[in-house]
Write a structure and sequence with these properties.
Elements lengths: L1 E6 L4 E8 L4 E10 H10 L4 E7 L8 H19 L3 E6 H7 L8 H11 L4 H5 E2 L2 E2 L9 H12 L2
Helix pairs in contact: 1-2, 3-6, 4-6
Length: 154
């Protein structure tokens, strides 16, 4: 099984294509324009699960948060319209699944993903000459990877 996971943003999103079978990141993009993410979802083969991080607001929502909500919904609808299995999860669910405590900071999610794929950064990410299973993951793609790991274990 492969999972196309998206950490949505107001104009660009983190994206990871993760192979559950090989426990390896097949593609990672830290800031893909949202229009390209949408086209990417529409172009996916049917054997891929699409996972989108669900947006949760605390208090008054600003314009960026509202645009992120709109894109998140568009990604989910594109997945459903294309016949993909669609999973929508809140960040707090990802953090709970990864056993990240407190505020669930990006660095904590990144550290846990690395720990689950070799224990240390050198093993998990590797280097260009010898890439590890998480080679190329950076920026918002770490949050998308955390989401993929949650969906992989469901």
């Amino acid at each position: 099984m492969r999972i196309y996971a998206v950490d949505p943003g107001p104009t660009s999103s983190g994206v990871v294509l993760y192979s559950v079978t090989s426990r390896k990141v097949l593609r990672s993009e830290k800031a893909t324009p949202n229009e390209d993410v949408l086209l990417g979802i529409l172009a996916l083969r049917s054997s891929i699960v699409v996972a989108v991080e669900r947006v949760q607001a605390q208090g008054i929502a600003g314009n960026d948060l509202m645009r992120t909500c709109e894109w998140s919904a568009r990604f989910a609808q594109a997945a459903l319209d294309s016949g993909h299995i669609m999973r929508w999860h809140y960040r707090r669910e990802v953090c709970r699944h990864l056993h990240v405590t407190g505020a669930g900071k990006d660095a904590q999610v990144r550290a846990r993903c690395i720990e689950l794929h070799g224990g240390d950064r050198r093993t998990a990410q590797g280097v260009k000459a010898s890439p590890g299973p998480l080679h190329g993951v950076s920026g918002h793609a770490w949050q998308a990877l955390g989401l993929a790991l949650l969906v992989a274990d469901l």
